[in-house]
Write a structure and sequence with these properties.
The protein is an alpha+beta fold and about 80 residues long. The chain is built from 3 helices and 5 strands; from the N terminus they run E-H-E-E-E-E-H-H. It has a single domain, classed as Metal Transport, Frataxin, Chain A, CATH 3.30.920.30.
Length: about 80
Amino acid sequence: MGKIPALNYRIMHKILVKLGFKKTRQKGIHVFYRHNDGRTTTVPNHKGQDLAKPLVRAIINDINISVDDFVSTMNSI
């Protein structure tokens, strides 16, 4: 299992789009994403701040992929 990286919202958005997620709506700072197969996740958009590592792990669990797959997708951006 790879290490969880600290990311900001923009990088997380690019990763989710590359994985096939689409931004469906936003309420305040929370941005909601949905995949065609029904998976969903929510990402807070705090400008100028990184997402905490436990939050990144929760998003990875929401989208149901492994940490290694997530890191390899992140590296390919």
